Each structure stands twice: as C-alpha cells, then as structure tokens.
Amino acid sequence: MIGQLKGILLEKQAPSLLIDVQGVGYEVAAPMSTFYVLPEIDQPVTLHTHLVVREDSHTLYGFASIGERSLFRNLIKVNGVGAKLALTILSGVSANDFVSCIEHEDSAALVRLPGVGKKTAERLIIEMKDRLKDLSGQSLTQTFSRTDGPAQADHAVGDAVSALVALGYKAAEASRMVRSVNNFSSLGSEELIRQALQATVK
Questions:
Q1: What are the structural domains of the chain?
Q2: Residue 65: is it exposed, middle or buried by C-beta count within 10 angstroms (0-12/13-18/19+)?
C-alpha cells in the first residue's frame, strides 16, 4: 500500500495530478478540495494516498490531509459508494460541510451532488454517523504554501468545464454552472470550479 507521496508537482488537470517522486511520475486522482490548496507547478508537494486495486486497474487517490483521506476511506465502505463517487462527494462539498450534513441529517444538500440520489443520501447519513466518531481530532483540511499567478481566462473556463464533466456533470450543465459564476472570465479554473460547486449546495 502506498500511503504517502512526496515530490514535485508536474501537472494538475482536475481530477488528475502527476507527481515526480525521484524520477518516477505518479498519476494521482484527487478531490477538488485538495486541488484548491495545491502549490503551483514545479513546487514540492506531499499527499496522503490510498491505493484502490481492481482487476483492470490500480488507481492512486491523493489527499491534502490525513483526515480527508480517512473520510474517503469511510465513504467507500458505504454500500453503493465507490471510489469515484466518494471523490465526487469530496469535490462537491468540503469535508467539514459534509460532516455537518451528516450530523444534521441534511439529505437535501447531499442529493444536489452528482451521482447521489435520495437513497444514497439516506445511506450516507445512516452509515456515516457512527464512522465520523473515528475522525474526531483529525484535521480535515490542509493548506500548502503557494503563490498564484494571473488567471489565464482562455484556458480557465475550458479547464473548469472539463473538471466538472469528469466529476459527473453533463457538459451543458457544467458549462452553465461555470458561466453563471460572477466575473467568470477573470477567474482561474480552480476558483471557477470552487464557486460553481458551492452554488449547487446552497
């Protein structure tokens, strides 16, 4: 089991990352909550990881904090929630907000996430309530030191739409979500994705 990667961030195209660890490039899938706090390209980064092994693939998932990884591991234990849906959940709502949804049994907010129907939301609330006790005392968020460059508007909108499609939204819906963000043409892709996703759970 690969539990941590420490290297140089080479590429980031949500939801995928490429990290150079002493000359070996690791492809990692990460939730948007991790993307939001990543350093710039060519900067050092450390991610807590979880390896999912299937007959036809080995997929490495990366997280900014141990608490976030623990939440992911608990999510994939829920009946009907696989790794892809767990990643979508952590992308569509912050870890702390998700915990709040579970504690307050707010199924309506969970249903707004792509791939989460009413029955899945109810299962999440029932099965995650006890498991959340295991996360007490763990930090669910993490930040990296970073310096943001100017937004590249010509690529930002396309990258944001592509990321939302990868998370399960239809292309037309993803485009509408991004273009409904205030001043969308002046924002970077990560901020566009953040605001577009936040609008869906309000």
A1: 4-63 (2.40.50.140), 68-135 (1.10.150.20), 153-200 (1.10.8.10)
A2: buried
Q: Which ranges in the chain belong to alpha helices (H)?
A: 32-35, 66-75, 83-92, 95-103, 107-111, 118-131, 153-166, 171-179, 189-200
pTM of the model: 0.70
The pLDDT value recorded for residue 176 is 84
CA 74: distance to chain centroid? 15
For residue 135, the model assigns a pLDDT of: 61
Give the tens place of pLDDT for each residue, 46-97. 999 999 988 888 999 999 888 889 999 999 999 889 998 999 888 888 777 8
